[in-house]
Task: structure prediction
Amino acid sequence: MQTPAVYKRRSTNPGRHDVGARQLGIALTMLFAIAAVGAVGYVVIEGWSLSDALYMTLISMTTTGFQEVGRLSNAGRVLTALLIIAGLASLAHVGGRVLQIAVEHYLVRRGRMDKSIARLRDHVILCGYGRMGRHIAEDLAEAGVDFVVIEADPEMKESLDDHGYLYLIGNASNDDLLKEAGVERAKGLIAVVSSDAENVYTTLTAKAINRDITIVARAISDDSEPKLRTAGADRVIKPYELVGRRIAQLVIRPAMVEFVDTIARSRSGEITMEEITVTETSALVGIALKDTTIRSKLNVIVVAIRRGAEDLIYNPGPTIAFRPGDVLVAIGRETDLKELSSLCGAAAGGA
Result:
């Protein structure tokens, strides 16, 4: 199975982070050294206990302004003034190093992700990372499909980072953002943003940039389906209708639904289902199904052939000859399907 493109969390330039960490360590060492010198100074000059000396050092370095432990001598005042100056400088230095490391970490990670997105070809753009979008992303990742997520809510960054997905934050209908996601090079786009109107705008924009991209869009209301199709959506999914029909089938034909689910989602190497495209250079072109070794040698069943946008041949007969561009819907073991994929001259998954 193909591994989807994800960004890795380790730095592409570990030396830079080593330098930052080393500088932070030096800054912290200086801070503690100043505190230690101050505490010892108060013990020696004022004769205070160690706890009183540490307390006075702390409020001096941080300029907190709490009540002094006791009356200061001239030497004690000089020490206090030096602690205030040195403490503020050290705290500012530590804060600067922490901020530097945080900014560098974000820039390196974001830069690495942008480079990964720029390298994508024939990938899928997932617009929307809500409840439905998260399930779609899981299935795409499980199937080994390269994809990038476009999500408008910045609060989703943590979840996207945790899963290692490639993503961009912003409005999915924005031309520049879609281009940054590689819409010109993408093979598909899934529009499941928060409203039907946004899905329509996203579909229109994507089709205007790439007329050949396949778009699957979600429609919450029945009125939105014709608008999405007019905008250029190749498939329109109505979740409530889809779920309703599935629930009915679970009651009417539970065994069939369980079988289809098993073969569609299986990743164990046992029986599974795939879409495989016959390329122009494939040895199968012009050959009838009965004259191939698909069934006899590979033990693979061709359930259907999708020919063009509308023509779907169910249970193709033995005399059906393969054509370039045919998409075979086949059932078999994963290893056998890979052999069929090689015979068709394409990767599994309809690529």
